[in-house]
Write a structure and sequence with these properties.
Blueprint: E1 2-4, E2 8-10, E3 13-15, E4 19-21, E5 31-35, E6 38-42, H1 44-50, H2 52-57, E7 74-80, E8 86-90, H3 109-123, H4 133-145, H5 151-159, H6 164-167, H7 174-184, H8 187-200, H9 215-251, H10 263-284
Helix pairs in contact: 3-4, 3-5, 7-8, 8-9, 9-10
């Protein structure tokens, strides 16, 4: 369960509403976490239950503090390190509040707030929508740091379908999202990225495949692009053959259509190639997107006049399923 308090105003400055995450029968809200001005109030018992980091960081005895009531027992705040990254530190160990802002942050505070919110939502199994690609990417790193190795990928899978704001940017950020999807072992997001990448670079896969450090991703993108290229070549060949047969049928005089000269076989060949042509067209123009853009029509929508969406990735070809 998540709740927010009303934002407060002091001297013209508005303090963001406090975000409260709480589960019943698991203890009091006894931990305050402030990340770049955004306050979160949570339960130590749930943090210790789900996170390796908090399990070692919260060191008082007892796993479930059901009998605890009163002020916060522990306070954390974000501190920017010398290298521009940030971490949570116990406020009792920070000499002054100014220590938190002595170094510039690598990134955007709003993104980091969103990312940490996503991490807490995963810890609480709260169905919070992912709003931005940057927020998800940052959250993946935080989830690894806080020891949510299996929990966070599972949570992302549960909320991806409702994260419409982020879905809208998959096609523009598919290259940076592909390794993230592989790290999360999220087949839906991974396939979405492959569909967009291969569909845009099917003519020249060498333009994009070297952008990926992982050789498995390189190989998979190369194969996906080549398959689309092969389909287009096959279809072009069928079209020219069918067109030639149609022209031949139009130019042959009706007096030459002798039924004793195996014309049924000839016309069946025309019909068969007509069916194959349409089947190949359907296969090439298929839209394999499952999230944002699944209703787009290839060759008709303005953004898809030179892009295919028919790339496929079999389960056995997913990078986490290959040796």
């Amino acid at each position: 369960m998540e709740a927010t308090q009303t934002p407060t105003t002091n001297g013209g400055n508005t303090t963001p509403a406090t975000i409260i995450l709480q589960l019943p029968d698991i203890g009091a809200i006894d931990v305050q976490i402030v990340v770049f001005g955004q306050e979160f109030n949570v339960q130590s018992a749930q943090l210790k239950l789900q996170s390796i980091f908090f399990r070692s960081s919260i060191n008082w005895p007892g796993r479930f503090e059901t009998d605890y009531a009163g002020a916060f027992r522990l306070r954390y705040m974000s501190v920017i390190e010398e290298d521009g990254t940030w971490s949570l530190q116990d406020t009792s160990r920070i000499k002054s509040d100014t220590a938190a802002s002595q170094h510039p942050l690598n990134g955007d505070t709003e993104t980091e707030i969103e990312a940490f919110h996503l991490v807490l939502a995963a810890i609480y199994d709260h169905p919070l929508a992912i709003n931005t690609v940057d927020g998800l990417i940052s959250a993946v790193g935080l989830a690894d740091y806080y020891g949510l190795h299996e929990l966070f990928p599972r949570w992302v899978s549960s909320v991806l379908a409702q994260s419409h704001n982020m879905q809208a940017y998959i096609h523009t950020d598919c290259k940076v999202l592909l390794p993230v999807a592989a790290q999360l072992k999220n087949a839906v997001l991974f396939r979405e990225c492959v569909v967009h990448i291969a569909g845009a670079h099917w003519r020249r896969p060498e333009e994009v495949w070297e952008e990926f450090e992982d050789w498995k991703l390189r190989r998979l993108i190369w194969i996906a692009c080549r398959r689309i290229n092969d389909k287009t070549r096959k279809l072009q060949g069928l079209y020219h053959y069918y067109h030639l047969c149609s022209r031949l049928r139009e130019t042959v005089p009706s007096t030459h259509l002798d039924p004793e000269k195996r014309l049924p076989e000839f016309f069946y060949a025309l019909h068969y190639n007509h069916c194959v042509l349409h089947a190949s067209l359907f296969e090439l123009l298929t839209n394999n997107l499952k999230l944002h853009g699944k209703d787009l029509v290839v060759g008709r929508n303005e953004d898809l006049l030179d892009t295919f969406l028919c790339a496929e990735v079999e389960d056995q070809d997913l990078p986490w399923n290959t040796p």
